[in-house]
Amino acid sequence: MRMRPRKQERYQIQMPLASLIDIVFLLLIYFLLTTNFIVEQGIDVNLPDAEASVPQTREEITVYVDKDGMVYIGDQPVDFNNLFDRLKDRIQANPKQLMVVKADGTIDLDRAVQVMDIAQAAGAQSLFLATEKRN
Predict the structure, then answer these.
(1) Residue numbers of the domain that contains 93
(2) What is the pTM of this model?
(3) CATH code for the domain in which residue 114 is found
(4) Would you state the torsion angle of the CA atoms of residues 49, 62, 111, 51, taken in this order, to the nearest 10 degrees?
């Protein structure tokens, strides 16, 4: 026979997690679907593929060479003979700025190399040829 009264176990308060998880997943899906992805505007070029392609995030001067061999700085067409002067003006404003050449993958490599040579002669310190990562 027991003399002491039996201790009653306390009920633990539990929060229903299933509905909370559902709400979190719905919010995640909502934000994924409504996010505006930044799409770079510019000249339509098909970049060549590369195995080890790394995205860059610094401010840049972008030179496009389209499939016809036309050269653009940003979205403005530039005569090939005036390219050196235009690049020199842009580079003098900020010499440490990144210079990216986005040449169409179907053009002769000579044209892209000529643009890179002109950019280097104009004073570009960081010069890159853009590629797309191969899947």
Answers:
(1) 49-133
(2) 0.55
(3) 3.30.420.270
(4) -20
